[in-house]
C-alpha cells in the first residue's frame, strides 16, 4: 500500500527575518541560504514528509513543460558531478512548472507567492504531480498539461484524479488587464463565456482575476470531477501575517510551497 503525503505551507513556523519572515523556502530573492535550508527541513516536517528523504523542485518558468523525476535520491555529498551538497535534501530536477513523481520515496515541491500551487494525485499513489500556475501558466495550458501528465504517469483517467489548489491571489486583489483575461480565458474556457465564470470579477472598468478559480475551471475542463477539485480558498494578498505575496510586497519577499510525496505505507 502506498500513501500520498501532501500539504501547503504558509509563511509561519520558520527562522527567516525581515521581508522573508519566517518560513521562506527560496533563496532566489536574497534570503540567507542557511536559514532557507532550515526552513526547508521544517516545511517537509510540517506536511508530514520525512526530512531525510529528498524533495525535488524545478526552475519554474511560467510555462507548461513537464519534469519527470527519475531519481528517488537527493544530491550526494561530494558527487563527481560536482554539484554542491545540499543538507536540506531539496534538489533541482530540471526546468518546468509541472513535476511528476511515480515512486515511493519521491516528493515534489513548487514554490509560490501569489501563483497557485496545484497538487494532483492518483489515490492509490501510482503517481503525483505538483504544478505552478499563475496567469501566464494558465494561459499556456499548464493545468491541462498537468492533468495529462498525471494520467499518463498513473495510467488512469482524469475522473480518477484528486486535486487540491493551495492559497493564491484571488479576485478581491488581483487587478489585471483585459489581455490577461482573454489569454487565460482562451485556455480555461475555450470559446465559452468569460463573464460570470467565477474567475473574473468586474468593477467598473477594472478586471480582476481569481487564480484558484481559474485553475479549478481548467481542472474541470480537463475532466477532473468538480467534487475532486478542492480549493484552499484563502487569498495570499489579503493576509500579510499568513502569506507572502509578490503583488503586495514586490520582488523582495519569500516563497511558500505546495509539496506532495509518495511513501510505501
Ligand atoms: Zn485578496
TrEMBL record:
**Could you tell me which residues belong to the region Disordered?**
60-92
Which CDD domains does the record cross-reference, listed alphabetically?
YfiH
Reactions it catalyzes:
inosine + phosphate = alpha-D-ribose 1-phosphate + hypoxanthine; adenosine + phosphate = alpha-D-ribose 1-phosphate + adenine; S-methyl-5'-thioadenosine + phosphate = 5-(methylsulfanyl)-alpha-D-ribose 1-phosphate + adenine; adenosine + H2O + H(+) = inosine + NH4(+)
Q: Which UniProt keywords apply?
A: Hydrolase, Metal-binding, Transferase, Zinc
Does the keyword section mention Ribonucleoprotein? no
SUPFAM superfamilies, sorted? CNF1/YfiH-like putative cysteine hydrolases (SSF64438)
Cited Pfam families: Cu-oxidase_4
What this protein is reported to do is described as: Purine nucleoside enzyme that catalyzes the phosphorolysis of adenosine and inosine nucleosides, yielding D-ribose 1-phosphate and the respective free bases, adenine and hypoxanthine. Also catalyzes the phosphorolysis of S-methyl-5'-thioadenosine into adenine and S-methyl-5-thio-alpha-D-ribose 1-phosphate. Also has adenosine deaminase activity.
Q: Which PANTHER family match?
A: PURINE NUCLEOSIDE PHOSPHORYLASE LACC1, UNCHARACTERIZED PROTEIN YFIH
| Stated family | Belongs to the purine nucleoside phosphorylase YfiH/LACC1 family.
Name of the featured protein: Polyphenol oxidase family protein
- What organism is recorded for this protein? Carboxydichorda subterranea
Q: What is the lineage of its organism?
A: Bacteria, Bacillati, Bacillota, Limnochordia, Limnochordales
Amino acid at each position: 500500500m502506498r500513501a500520498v503525503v501532501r500539504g501547503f505551507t504558509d509563511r509561519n513556523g520558520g527562522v527567516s527575518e525581515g521581508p522573508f519572515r519566517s518560513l521562506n523556502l527560496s533563496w532566489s530573492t536574497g534570503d540567507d541560504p542557511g536559514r532557507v535550508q532550515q526552513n526547508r527541513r521544517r516545511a517537509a516536517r510540517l506536511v508530514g514528509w520525512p526530512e531525510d528523504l529528498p524533495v525535488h523542485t524545478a526552475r519554474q518558468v511560467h510555462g507548461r513543460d513537464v519534469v519527470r523525476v527519475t531519481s528517488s535520491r537527493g544530491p550526494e555529498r561530494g558527487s563527481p558531478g560536482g554539484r554542491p551538497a545540499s543538507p536540506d535534501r531539496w534538489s533541482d530536477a530540471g526546468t518546468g512548472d509541472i513535476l511528476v513523481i511515480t515512486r515511493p520515496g519521491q516528493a515534489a515541491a513548487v514554490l509560490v507567492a501569489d501563483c497557485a500551487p496545484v497538487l494532483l494525485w492518483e489515490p492509490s499513489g501510482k503517481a503525483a504531480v505538483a504544478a505552478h500556475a499563475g496567469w501566464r501558466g494558465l494561459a499556456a495550458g499548464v493545468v491541462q498539461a498537468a492533468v495529462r501528465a498525471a494520467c499518463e504517469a498513473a495510467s488512469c483517467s482524469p475522473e480518477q484524479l484528486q486535486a487540491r489548489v493551495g492559497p493564491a491571489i484571488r479576485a478581491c486583489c488581483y487587478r489585471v488587464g483585459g489581455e490577461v483575461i482573454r489569454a487565460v480565458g482562451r485556455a480555461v474556457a475555450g470559446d465559452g463565456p468569460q463573464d460570470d465564470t467565477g474567475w473574473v470579477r468586474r468593477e467598473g472598468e477594472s478586471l480582476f482575476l481569481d487564480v484558484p478559480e481559474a485553475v479549478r475551471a481548467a481542472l474541470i475542463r480537463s475532466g477532473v470531477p468538480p467534487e475532486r477539485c478542492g480549493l484552499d480558498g484563502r487569498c495570499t494578498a489579503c493576509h500579510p501575517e499568513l502569506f507572502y505575496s509578490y503583488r503586495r510586497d514586490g520582488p523582495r519577499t519569500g516563497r511558500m510551497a505546495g509539496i506532495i510525496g509518495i511513501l510505501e505505507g
